[in-house]
Write a structure and sequence with these properties.
- With 390 residues, the protein is mainly alpha-helical.
- It folds into 4 domains: 65 residues, lambda repressor-like DNA-binding domains (434 Repressor (Amino-terminal Domain), Orthogonal Bundle), CATH 1.10.260.40; 116 residues, no CATH class; 110 residues, no CATH class; 74 residues, no CATH class.
- It contains 20 helices and 2 strands.
- Strands 1-2 form a two-stranded antiparallel ribbon.
- Helix 10 runs parallel beside helix 12.
- It is globular and about 60 Å long.
- It starts with 5 loop residues before the first helix and ends with a helix.
Length: 390
């Protein structure tokens, strides 16, 4: 434990458990550890291993870094999982073994992993995703059914969230290639739109923003007509993504056009998760901030205007909510509001610590804030050390 004693950790776990109105027996059952172990940890007599800490944190619905200051177990676990994931990808198109789970078991496991992704629980994803992707591929090779292709795309997208966030961009690109390969076997326009949305990551990494914008515009043109909630969301999500990459390309007019289209479509559906992507009026507002920050300059004020009028609700996935505050922090920093920027970064950390810690903008802005020394020196230094900015 980097900066906590076993007693401090135990007290923090106990307090979090009590705030959830859970008994020690409840925590033991949900985290799959013994009641005796829970009691020993809470009174400070035992220090949990990284794996046990992750299990407890998952049971309490918090990130391990909310329990242990400076915890880096998640980062180690993610990087340790990448070689196994790479090995699965090396033979993605080679039928090897029959699936070890039934189709129903696989659907349930993939759905659970998608929820971990949306909640930015990357440590849990890393622990299970290689085997889950392998089973999904085995199922597709065996059944050749559209639903099997959808499961491969969902599993690969979940794996990609970990690879992309932790800087394994070559592995991320390979995962997206697998998604495109599986999607081509499904003949499902909704799945095609979903993969086009995720593929944009490769354009962001390469800074090929104009090419990415064109790819998304082609995806919009071929997306299903917006006649139901699902088709509205598929098209709207592509417009949201196109608006952001247009902003990165410096094409303000295109960004405004796509954002306007997304706004109209967002108002036509309730906020929900469609094809693995959150879409609705709240997500569009978050992307307004993203677009403003991407365009920079005179557009940054729009991000501040949105934040003055609105804040994302708990219904928005944690990863996206934390992203809102990270991007707001950048707008505030550029506007000379250093103290407000630091507060926004702290809110982002409280929502999704793993996501915030691996976000390059959060690292850059924490380092700049520390140089400016506009916030409390000790708190800012601690934050900068936690995020790896010093």
């Amino acid at each position: 434990m980097p900066s906590d004693t076993a007693l401090q950790l135990g007290q923090r776990i106990a307090a979090t458990r009590q705030s959830r109105r859970m008994t020690q027996a409840d925590l033991a059952r949900v985290s799959y550890i013994s009641l005796a172990m829970v009691k020993a940890i809470e009174r400070g007599a035992r220090a949990p291993s990284d794996a046990t800490l992750d299990s407890i944190a998952a049971a309490l619905a918090v990130d391990p870094t909310r329990l242990v200051i400076g915890h880096t177990g998640t980062e180690r676990r993610v990087h340790a999982a990448l070689p196994e994931l790479s090995a699965v990808l090396a033979a993605y198109d080679v039928p090897l073994d029959p699936p070890r789970r039934s189709a129903e078991e696989l659907r349930s496991a993939v759905a659970e992993a998608v929820n971990w992704r949306l909640a930015a629980q990357y440590g849990r994803v890393a622990r299970h995703i290689a085997l889950l992707l392998q089973d999904s591929l085995c199922h597709l090779h065996t059944s050749h059914e559209p639903d099997a292709a959808r499961l491969v795309v969902a599993a690969a997208r979940t794996a990609d969230a970990v690879a992309y966030k932790y800087g394994a961009h070559d592995l991320s690109a390979r995962l997206i290639d697998v998604m495109r390969w599986a999607e081509a076997q499904a003949d499902d326009p909704f799945l095609t739109a979903s993969v086009a949305y995720v593929r944009t990551e490769t354009f962001f990494v390469a800074r090929a923003h104009r090419a990415g914008l064109r790819a998304l515009e082609i995806a919009v043109d071929t997306a299903p007509p917006p006649v139901c909630a699902r088709s509205v969301a598929a098209r709207g999500a592509l417009h949201m993504r196109a608006a952001v990459i247009a902003g990165r390309a410096g094409e303000a007019s295109a960004a405004d056009t796509h954002l306007s289209q997304a706004r109209v479509l967002g108002d036509a559906v309730k906020e929900d998760i469609y094809q693995g992507t959150a879409f609705g009026p709240d997500s569009v507002r978050i992307h307004e901030v993203s677009v403003a920050v991407s365009l920079g300059g005179e557009h940054v004020g729009r991000a501040l205007d949105v934040a003055r009028e609105w804040k994302p609700s708990l219904a928005i996935p944690a990863e996206r909510r934390s992203g809102f505050y990270i991007e707001l922090a950048r707008a505030q920093l550029w506007s000379g509001m250093a103290d407000n920027a630091f507060e926004s970064l702290k809110v982002a950390r409280s929502i999704a610590p793993q996501h915030t810690r691996e976000h390059p903008w959060a690292k850059e802005d924490a380092a700049r804030l520390r140089r400016l020394k506009r916030a409390d020196a000790d708190s800012l230094t601690n934050f900068a050390e936690w995020i790896g900015a010093v």
